[in-house]
Amino acid sequence: MGPGPDYSGPNAASIIANEHCFDTFAQFVEFTAKARDKNSSVSQFESAVDAVVAGDLPRLQSLLRKKSSLVHTRSLRRHHATLLHYVGANGVEGFRQRTPQNAVTIAETLLKAGAQVDATAEIYGKSTPLDLVATSIHPWRAGVQQALLRTLLQAQSETSRGVRSCTLIIAALQNGRGEAAEFLAAQGAELNLEAAAGVGRLDVVKQCFDATGARKGNVSAEKLRSAFRWACQYGRTPVVEFLMNKVDADTLKAGLHWAIFSGNVETLQLFLRRNVPLDTLNEWGGTPLSGAVWCATHSHGSDYAPMIRALISAGASADADSELQTQIDRILGSSC
Fold first, then answer.
1. Cα(114)–Cα(189) distance, integer angstroms
2. What would the pLDDT profile of 15-54 be if each residue is shown by its tens digit?
3. Structurally, how many domains does the chain consist of?
4. Residue 152 lies in a domain
5. Residue 257 lies in domain
6. pLDDT above 90 for 292
7. Residues 230, 236, 237, CA angle at the centre, nearest 5°?
8. Of 240, 238, 236, 235, which Cα lies nearest the Cα of 224?
9. Alpha helices of 157-248 — where are they, by DSSP H?
10. Per the domain annotation, does 11 fall within a domain?
């Protein structure tokens, strides 16, 4: 066997420290020394964290019985997360961003033990466990995101519930968590134009315009563009149709690309009927057709073959790009 990796250099040390959420390697070394002592509070907390992310309920319960204060302890890592924050599988050390199938039971156990549902950690500024769950892909992949959100919402105090709900909905949309955004909206969260458009609430969207169709005073052009983007990206077809006459030409072109991303053919058809140019490029230099192909080869959700067919029928072509055409043939061939 050859020599192992060299972790002695300053760059390697910085990488190791960062992966473990420490600002310096010296902090990581000091932490490691404390964690080696099985009787130390650091070791006990780290063991509890491991139990949380692994879904090891018996181990977690045993640790909490032995030391109930663990539920209020904060990590020495730079995010200073509590055990409940780790349920979000978001913004903490990468190797611990996992969501077990019994994550709801884990959260309920921590809450029953006295975990503070509104405690903030130094993650993305300041984040509560609810913030982290709503914007994380891991609870969604595990199929427990909405159940976790419901558990955390029920545990919130009446005074704090919904204070940041509109902001949180937009954060969920920004992180690709449309289902979480819909769920939060269904719990009675206040909606502004952007949030309403992203979750498909056309009734609320209409309230942001006066009888002449003009934007009301609290709706900026920037917010309108953002609202149109979310409606397009999440395939909120009625909202997209309503807003189409209210955005400028550049926003309309950008909306076509976001509609491609949605995988919703009905939303795409709105743009095709408007004859929005099919040669317009997105920020990565791709056309709507190449964007649909990229989504088809990278997505684990929607079937993009119908979108590709619709674009080709509308005049989109890959004639000048043999590699793109090969990909299209493979996608359409496998969808038959």
1. 26
2. 999 999 999 999 999 999 999 999 999 999 999 999 999 9
3. 1
4. no
5. 212-336
6. yes
7. 125
8. 240
9. 165-174, 178-186, 193-199, 202-206, 221-233, 237-243
10. no
